[in-house]
Specification:
The complex is a heterodimer of chains A (about 200) and B (about 575).
Chain A (H helix, E strand, L loop, with lengths): L2 H36 L1 H4 L3 E4 L2 E5 L36 H17 L10 H4 L9 E2 L1 H15 L3 H10 L1 E2 L10 E3 H16 L1
Helix pairs in contact in A: 5-6
Chain B lengths: L2 H29 L6 H15 L9 H25 L15 H12 L9 H4 L2 H31 L9 H27 L9 E5 L3 E5 L5 H9 L20 H26 L2 H27 L3 H6 L16 H13 L14 H12 L10 H21 L4 E2 L2 E2 L2 H27 L1 H4 L7 H15 L14 H30 L16 H35 L5
Classes of the chains: A mainly alpha (about 200), B mainly alpha (about 575).
């Protein structure tokens, strides 16, 4: 390989790189433009508005701590939607066992369970993202009595609302049966308002 | 059969149905034959070459090919590093992020260029949209394309005879992006966005939540990066928790497409090999060996994870189901399938926290990476790694029957054997040396999140991931320290170039040889016996190298878990 070939090779190298950078900008802008037109709701973050204010994203779990709401799964990052994360505790972690023991005790006392009742895993174990928007139906069924009691609603009405918000596996076999906590709680607020109005 | 196992079977079925034609398509693209996309893309390709002054008919020797590859990678590392340092002054930075810390930036540049996508940083807290688009997404395309180009060059070494050349790096790189990665990425990105993967250049959203005040929700151009992150087996996520994040992997459908995406091209390449060798049986035998190893690992991991955690069961968690670090929408089985797939390929994207898997599940993931990610593997480099093992298998078989070993019609001699051993051992030795360093230095132990044997697993996992160019993590380990940023960067460089360079050397040497006709003394590749021997070689080499450290990490942890010990 003589010198002129090396120079030519370096030139190709730099030009190719520059072109790819430009093309990739075009790619991202094209995808952004296309998705904003085809799927504006999803591409914008699946935001939910109540009375014109964004109250959250359908896909992003948030903290509910008042007993009148269904609680989300525990979060290792306190539902910080700009710093996602899990606990990363291993299976023999003493810190994990302490956390779970406390959470189980809280569930048993708040939801009137017996002292040795077992608790659904998603109720007391933190999600991977810290932003899991869903809970399991078993989890919702345990919280149902508390929510109905605090809100003064008949359990049957709350149960109907839970059933209405239960999502089943996509195409019957993809993923788990689950309930979107934010959607359910917003519907709950509307139901309560209607009852009072 | 439960729906979850229907899901696993269907996904692998779809993979097989798609991999065979994709493999043939890849063979055509790189042989310059006509494909359905040729009328559309060929004019673009030609204009591209004339613009860049590339003569597409000019062939390269392996040394020229390797020099072009290295020069291109050096340029890429410098560009990604500078972009991170300059992002504060550049546009598309709505959160106003400043320059990335130097050691993190070096690590990230090397990580994305070597197709590792190890992420010491938290995406939504560190990188501007411009950095994600121009630095990281670009490298997701290019590093995948470099791997595919290298694999094609190696295949040419087998199919050519009496020549010194193995192809043109610029042409192979361009075709990988234009004919393969880009069309697939557009499809994947659009489907992802339809399911809820966010794609916007706007600032983070401040929501007024019903019960907890304000929540600042990170958004960004995610779908475009998410698509190529799987197709190029990169794995570098937009957000900190990667595909566990609901914006990066919102539904079970996106989850399954992500698994399919990372396996598709890697699983197609053995079929491309068969098509280019004009001997499809040989391609099928390589694919079969990979599939046997894949299913074995998946079986053990599913068994381990569905058994649950006895300690949680004892505390009162129903069934001891280990949902810690997993998302409700996926559940146990899909998360394990994802983890198995992301560690056999060099993808490294995660849809659950690997640190929180049960010990034996973690063992399977470690094994997948430590053997060099040859079970499908990274796009291109997985096939290369498996060819190293095939060379070793043929050498061992040759010793047993007293014949000169051959593979795919080429005689294997000491020079090929030496290169294959370098390719297999250099990453493993580097892994063990760096992990040893981390275990004896305070700077290494300081970063641990878990104590006991799981702490050792965290360290081993970090270096297995780096040296295997995987990029997934036992993320409890705080890897964003100068010690880990520098040591993992070194591991990534060795893992990448000690695989690709010996492979190109083998290609160069084989291309010069004549093709040996199939005879009674040839050990046939397209035969179950070869599959058994190849699988055996992979397991034995992996076990001999890593057994001691696996015993002290995940196996010990499993036994202590059974005895009820916590740390």
């Amino acid at each position: 390989m003589d010198n002129s070939e090396i120079v030519k090779g370096i030139r190709s190298c730099i030009l190719l790189f520059a072109t790819v950078v430009v093309l990739s900008l075009v790619y991202t802008v094209f995808i952004t433009w296309g998705t904003q037109i085809l799927f504006p709701y999803q591409a914008g973050g699946s935001l939910i508005y109540v009375n014109g204010t964004a109250v959250g994203s359908e896909l992003i779990g948030q903290n509910f701590s008042s007993p009148g709401y269904f609680y989300s799964r525990p979060s290792a990052v306190d539902y910080n939607a700009s710093n996602s994360g899990g606990s990363n505790y291993g299976a023999t972690s003493a810190a994990l066992m302490d956390q779970v023991t406390q959470r189980i005790a809280k569930v048993r006392s708040e939801d009137n369970l017996s002292a040795n009742a077992s608790v659904p895993a998603d109720m007391v174990l933190a999600s991977g993202s810290g932003l899991d928007p869903h809970i399991s139906p078993e989890n919702a069924m345990i919280q149902l009595q508390r929510v109905a009691r605090v809100r003064g609603l008949p359990e049957s009405e709350v149960k109907a609302l839970v059933d209405q918000h239960t999502e089943y596996p996509q195409f019957g076999f993809l993923g788990q049966t689950r309930i979107n906590v934010l959607r359910l709680n917003i519907a709950l607020d509307e139901l309560t308002k209607k009852g009072k109005g | 059969m439960s729906p979850e196992f229907v899901y696993v079977a269907l996904l692998l079925g779809v993979l097989l149905v798609l991999a065979v034609p994709t493999g043939r398509y890849i063979a055509k693209v790189f042989s310059g034959e006509r494909t359905p996309l040729t009328p559309l893309l060929r004019p673009i390709e030609k204009r591209f070459y004339s613009l860049l002054g590339i003569d597409e008919n000019k062939e390269m020797s392996w040394k020229t090919y390797a020099s072009a590859l290295i020069a291109f990678n050096i340029l890429s590392v410098i560009a990604v590093f500078l972009l991170q340092e300059a992002q504060g002054w550049l546009p598309l930075n709505p959160q106003g992020f400043g320059p990335v810390r130097w050691d993190t930036a070096v690590n990230t540049a090397i990580s994305f260029v070597t197709n590792t996508n190890w992420q010491a940083y938290s995406g939504e807290q560190t990188m501007s949209y411009l950095t994600q688009m121009l630095g990281l997404t670009v490298q997701n395309f290019l590093s995948g394309a470099v791997g595919i180009a290298a694999a094609i060059a190696v295949i040419r070494g087998f199919i050519r005879k009496n020549t010194a050349t193995i192809g043109n790096f610029w042409v192979d790189l361009t075709r990988s992006v234009l004919y393969l990665l880009l069309p697939l990425a557009i499809i994947w990105a659009l489907v992802f966005a339809s399911q809820g993967v966010v794609q916007t250049l706007g600032p983070y959203v401040a929501a007024q939540t019903p019960d907890s005040g304000e929540q600042l929700i990170a958004v960004g151009p995610t779908a475009s990066q998410d698509a190529i992150k799987f197709l190029g087996t990169n794995g570098g996520g937009f957000f900190n928790v990667n595909s566990a994040h609901p914006f990066e992997n919102p539904t079970p459908l996106t989850d399954s497409l992500q698994v399919l995406g990372m396996l598709l091209i890697a699983a197609s390449l053995p079929f491309a090999l068969g098509a280019m060798l004009k001997n499809r049986g040989q391609g099928r035998a390589i694919f079969a060996s990979m599939m046997v190893l894949y299913l074995a690992g998946l079986g053990v991991a599913l068994w381990s994870e569905t058994n649950g955690n006895p300690l949680l069961d004892h505390l009162g968690v129903a069934g001891g189901i280990n949902l810690e670090g997993k998302e409700t929408r996926f559940g146990i089985v899909p998360t394990v399938l994802f983890a198995e797939s992301t560690t056999v390929t060099s993808d490294g994207g995660v849809d659950g926290m690997h640190d929180s898997f049960l010990p034996l599940t973690g063992l399977v993931l470690l094994f997948n990476m430590a053997i060099g990610e040859v079970i499908f593997g990274g796009v291109g480099v997985g096939l290369i790694g498996m060819i190293f093992y095939a060379i070793m298998t043929m050498f061992i078989a040759g010793l047993m029957i007293g014949r000169t070993p051959e593979l795919f019609g080429k005689k294997l001699e000491p020079s090929e054997m030496i290169m294959a051993v370098i390719g297999l051992l250099a990453p493993s030795v580097t892994l063990l040396l760096l992990a040893t360093l981390a275990v004896v230095l305070p700077a290494g132990l300081f970063s641990l999140n878990n104590a006991g044997p799981h702490g050792l697993s965290e360290i081993i996992y970090a270096f297995a991931s780096a040296c295997g160019n995987n990029g997934s993590a036992f993320a409890g380990l705080n890897a964003n320290t100068i010690f880990y940023n520098m040591t993992t960067a070194l591991g990534m460089l060795v893992g990448r170039f000690a695989t690709i360079l010996p492979a190109l050397a083998i290609a160069g040497s084989l291309a010069q040889k004549k093709i040996v006709p199939f005879s009674a003394a040839t050990l046939p590749v397209a035969h179950p016996l070869f599959v058994v021997m190849l699988v055996g070689t992979v397991i034995i080499v992996g076990a001999l190298t890593f057994f001691p450290v696996f015993v002290l990490g995940p196996i010990l942890e499993h036994m202590l878990l059974g005895a009820g010990r916590t740390f």
